[in-house]
Specification:
212 residues
Length: 212
């Protein structure tokens, strides 16, 4: 039983990482400075922040479930899901608007000087919503003791961090490579990830409205 729960948590973490809204969000965030030279360590840190924020929320709510012995967070997830749609749409619009900014535009984004970027906070919001969080809580409630439940949350979080950090890093490096060699590709990538994010946001918004 223990091994089955832990294995299920690991596979769930990888599967949950590549849900469309997660891929869309990380794709937009990973290409915010597309075409500009980057150092590897800051890029790895930036790529991991969405997953870190997501995992922090997941673990926090899992611990709350253990303390209260309640599925309260499942109800919260339904309401937070409604917020994901507008956030995805906003991310998509911001990606498209990059193509219309002047090349002399001076960037003053909050992530340039702070340890945590908006990727972290968006990841935290995603951690409250979606089927992955609900399944994680269900596995936690099914655990025979608190020790097993904590391991379920840790293993799933580790899988999410590994999967989404790797995806964000590879996507950012690929986009940056194309952007430095062929400038028009920067605009194309912004349009693609922007439209993808907007479409996913609209779908999430419609589906969450139906479930409320």
């Amino acid at each position: 039983m223990l091994n089955e729960l832990l294995l299920g948590s690991l596979l769930l973490g990888f599967q949950h990482s590549f849900e469309p809204d997660h891929v869309a969000a990380v794709s937009v965030l990973a290409t915010e400075k597309n075409g500009q030279p980057r150092r590897m360590l800051p890029l790895i840190w930036r790529s991991s922040q969405w997953a870190l924020g997501h995992s922090l929320t997941l673990i926090s709510f899992g611990v709350l479930v253990l303390i209260l012995k309640s599925s309260l967070s499942l109800q919260v997830a339904g309401y937070v899901e409604f917020l994901i749609g507008p956030v995805m749409i906003a991310l998509g619009v911001s990606a498209i608007l990059r193509n219309f900014k002047s090349s002399t535009h001076t960037h003053t984004h909050i992530h340039s000087g702070n340890v945590l970027s908006r990727s972290f906070w968006i990841g935290m919001l995603h951690g409250l919503a979606g089927t992955g969080g609900a399944c994680a809580i269900a596995l936690t409630l099914a655990a025979r003791d608190a020790y097993t439940a904590v391991w379920i949350l840790v293993i799933q979080s580790a899988a999410i961090i590994t999967a989404m950090t790797s995806y964000g890093l590879l996507f950012a490096l690929s986009a940056n490579r194309f952007g430095t060699r062929w400038k028009p590709s920067v605009r194309a990538i912004n349009y693609v990830v922007g439209i993808f994010s907007i479409v996913i946001g609209l779908i999430v918004l419609v589906e969450s409205c139906k479930s409320l």
